[in-house]
Amino acid sequence: xxxxxxxxxxxxxxxxxAIEEDFHVVEFESHEPKWDPDVRRSLHFEQDRVFTLxxxxxxxxxxxxxxxxxxxxxxxxxxxxALYLSCDLFQDPGEIVSAVDAYxxxxxxxxxxxxxxxxxxxxxxxxxWDRGVKHMVDRGALVAST
Length: 146
Prior knowledge:
This protein has 146 residues and is mostly helical. Helices cover 40% and strands 7% of the residues.
């Protein structure tokens, strides 16, 4: 995946306010009462970790990821320190590895020693996705990343 593709999929890299225009964030804000799961406040991103979030279709997993992204963008973090990547059209774990590698390479220009937050949505739709993630962990590519 080319860096331009990643930038197109992460419009908040160019304009932080774009997260407020995201379909899932707009839908969340338009509904009452607000659903704000405890897991949103219980995830800690200070250490290198891999979290998996699973659940039935249409329960708000993608919305939760977008809200986590909005939280990061609302902090002092550089916008490029977070990647949102929908993996539902990927065919194999190599595509995930390639996309994450492209992101990690392009994010080297982020000032400071920022941690990286990688939000891989629909990753479980890719057969053997866990092998791709394990490969990145084993070679040290995800150091300073959650």
